[in-house]
Every structure is written in structure tokens, then in C-alpha cells.
From TrEMBL:
It catalyses: [thioredoxin]-dithiol + NADP(+) = [thioredoxin]-disulfide + NADPH + H(+). Gene3D superfamilies: FAD/NAD(P)-binding domain (3.50.50.60). Pfam families: Pyr_redox_2. It comes from the Bacteria. Residues 12-288 form the FAD/NAD(P)-binding domain. Keywords: Flavoprotein, Oxidoreductase. This is Thioredoxin reductase.
Length: 309
């Protein structure tokens, strides 16, 4: 089956919003359980800038786009439908949901899984966004091995930079923290010094790039700190508008609350991956999608019994 736009009000057991690792994993389990499934996906995953993904058993080093291509082919082989595009609204309809597509048309679903990921807010330093996922990096567990023992920097400007530097220290002894517009207190400076992490104060003007590679960080006063790779700690903004519009409960930090299977506070609605868990790596998100799918199918079985009675 190939990607195509559904006719108005096509009906499915489950509509999955988001076709990353979480959404595709859920669709695979559900379609193998003989459920009718549609996956709505815009085709721009969070890890799109990265050349490879790491830490996924048997898929370590695989390009993210390749994983998604294989996943799409797998779910389509079991009859699931991939719908290119985005969802503009979800409303309750006849005991289920009507999913309105931004490009026109709608889908009806008995159950809904939202796996729309999150957006990384990066420090507003020229070069950070352009090199992000290449040699301006976020996750040490994803990229630390590839830059081990190199000259590394942690760029501040977002919460948690000190802890990020302390974590990264185990991948390289040549590590500096540039707080940028942050203030590092005496206790944190002592913690960093104890681990051999130098602090270089002053606002950062730009990421220095030459020969299509990061060469360092230039400060506003003209100094350049030569580095081979830069790590940042983004602020995370979940793509959870659909969940909030449906009335899903959120926690004190503003994240949508789910149980161990991804069930939200709204009946019939599940969520998985970075939309509800900022720490989920690709392999974690895939596992969450699988767990959600099993719970979704159990919920549908109970509904099937109720309808039969």
C-alpha cells in the first residue's frame, strides 16, 4: 500500500498522529493485531538533522530517515495507511473521534494515539541551529561516543548546563563550560573544578565553522575557544496542542500526564514518545509506542465485547 490522502471521514480503529518511532511502533503492533490503523505524519522528525542514531539495539548507527522508511514499509505490509500531512483538530464524535486534516478531509477513529514529539529551543547563538545534529549536539548518550576524547564545550544559555557539563566529563577530559548569559555560582564552580571542567565566562558571539566543521566558539570580546564539538541543553517544548485541546491533564511542569501505557486522563486517548516524555530516545519512544498499542487493543477488545452484548 502506498501513501495516500483518505476520503472524507474514513473510519479506523486507531488514528496515530505522528509517524516517528513511537507512532510507527504502535501502528505495527496494532496492524498485526488486525486493527485498522492510519498514521498521519508530516515527515519532519525531531532527529531529522542527525546523520545517525545510536543506542538502538541492532540499529546502532542507522540513519534516522532509513529507520522511518523501513518502519513505514513494515506497517503498510500489514494494511496500515500512512497519510502525509498534519492534523488541525480532533473532536469527540459518536463515542470516538473525528480527526481533521490540515490539507482537507478527516478521519474517524475509535481511539487516538498522539505521538507528535517536541521542539528543541536552542540558545540564540549564530551557528547553533545550523550545526545542530552534526557537531552541535544535545544528547551525550546519542553522540558522546563519536566525539570521545575530543575537545568539547558545553554552551550555556538554557537550564541545566552545569549538570550537562558534569555528565559529559566522562566522555572527554578536555571539556569547558561557556555559561554565555548564565551565572555560575560558587558551589557549581567548585563541582566543575573538582572534575577538571574549566569555566570560560562571557557572552558567546557565534559558533566558528570552517571546512564544514565546528572549530570553536567565539566570544563577544574576540576570544576564540577552539573546540571540536559543542553540546547544548535545549529547552523542550512538546507538540501537545491536540492533547491540551482535548482536555488532557498536565503536571506541575506543564507536561501531559500519562500512565505506564501512555493512557491520558481523557478516555480513548493515548500519547507516547517525546510529546509526553522529553527524555525518550528513539528506542525508548518505540517501546512506549508498543506498550500503548497493546493497551489500546485491550481497550478496543473490551469495547467490542460491550457492543456485542
Amino acid at each position: 500500500m502506498t501513501d495516500n490522502q483518505p476520503t472524507t471521514a474514513s473510519a479506523y480503529d486507531v488514528v496515530v498522529v505522528g509517524g516517528g518511532a513511537a507512532g510507527l511502533s504502535a501502528a505495527l503492533v496494532l496492524s498485526r493485531a488486525r486493527r485498522s490503523v492510519a498514521v498521519v505524519d508530516a515527515g519532519h522528525p525531531r532527529n531529522e538533522p542527525a546523520a545517525h542514531m545510536q543506542g538502538f539495539l541492532s540499529r546502532d548507527g542507522m540513519p534516522p530517515a532509513e529507520l522511518l522508511a523501513v518502519g513505514r514499509a513494515e506497517i503498510q505490509s500489514y494494511g496500515a495507511q500512512v497519510v502525509p500531512g498534519t492534523v488541525s483538530a480532533v473532536t469527540a464524535h459518536d463515542g470516538g473521534f473525528e480527526v481533521t486534516l490540515s490539507g482537507g478531509g478527516s478521519l474517524r477513529a475509535r481511539r487516538l494515539l498522539v505521538a507528535t514529539g517536541l521542539r528543541d529551543e536552542l540558545p540564540a547563538v549564530p551557528g547553533v541551529r545550523e550545526r545542530f545534529g552534526r557537531d552541535v549536539l544535545h544528547c551525550p548518550y546519542c553522540h558522546g561516543w563519536e566525539v570521545r576524547d575530543q575537545r568539547l564545550a558545553v554552551l550555556g544559555g538554557t537550564p541545566g548546563a552545569v549538570d550537562h557539563a558534569l555528565l559529559l566529563r566522562q566522555w572527554s577530559a578536555d571539556l569547558v563550560l561557556l555559561p554565555h548569559d548564565d551565572v555560575v555560582g560558587d558551589l557549581d564552580r567548585a563541582r566543575l573544578a573538582a572534575r577538571g571542567v574549566e569555566v570560560v565566562d562571557g557572552p558567546v558571539a557565534r559558533v566558528v565553522v570552517a571546512g564544514d566543521a565546528v572549530r570553536g566558539l567565539e566570544l563577544a570580546d574576540g576570544r576564540t575557544i577552539e573546540r571540536d564539538a559543542v553540546f547544548v541543553r535545549p529547552r523542550f517544548h512538546p507538540h501537545d496542542g491536540l492533547l491540551r485541546d482535548l482536555g488532557c491533564a498536565v503536571d506541575e511542569q506543564g507536561w501531559v500526564v500519562v500512565d505506564g501505557t501512555g493512557r491520558t486522563s481523557v478516555p480513548g486517548v493515548w500519547a507516547a514518545g517525546n510529546a509526553v516524555d522529553p527524555r525518550a530516545q528513539v528506542v525508548t519512544a518505540a517501546g512506549q509506542g508498543s506498550a500503548a498499542a497493546i493497551a489500546l487493543n485491550a481497550d478496543l477488545v473490551a469495547d467490542d465485547v460491550d457492543r456485542a452484548l
